[in-house]
Amino acid sequence: MIPALIIWLCKKYFAPKTYKTFSSKSPINPKSVASVLFLICSFSSAFAQQSKFNIKRNGEVIGQMYFQQKDDGDNVYLKITSKVQTRFVFKIDVETEDVAHFKNGKLLCSNVNRVVNGNAKEAKKTSWVNNVYQLKTSDKTSTINQPISYNMMLLYTKEPVNIPEIYSDNFQCFIPIQRNGAHQYRINLPDGNYNDYHFENGICKLVVVNHSLYTIRMERV
Hints:
The chain is mostly beta strands. 11% of the residues lie in helices and 54% in strands. InterPro entries: DUF6134 (IPR045767).
């Protein structure tokens, strides 16, 4: 999702490069491709919910994010796309596409994808396989056996009332949810940064991305 992406961008261009850069030429798993295509095809018809957020830095609109949800019986399909153009040391053009599929309230599959200045970056995939979640990032694989019923994408359509923790498809782990006030929640991310979510009538209206080097506001239009 876009808040985690912006934090990643800041790390890449300002912080020491302590992480591995993955090549866009990494081997492609046919099963992963099939899952992604299935999720994309699921959005061919009209969406039950659609919303747009303006992404602002220092009061200036630097991009937009679109949230889409489709309900089909026991299935819920989520999709978030965004495009950001800004300048830190030099111009940065970022596009993202995150998709997720829930059935009977349980996450079956999610994918996190991003393209920076025309180059595809590491993709992250979470899949329910053989009664466990398989987590894949490039050539790395791990598992989680805890049920996932609420992830970061659902924050844009459902207020986390009485929900103690949330699954991050980007960090691929569970994160506690902290209630900061009436219809306000804070997510403290594993990298030390945090996001504040503001809700009205159960719907997210504002996200404030707080980082040591900048603040980003995502305002529902």
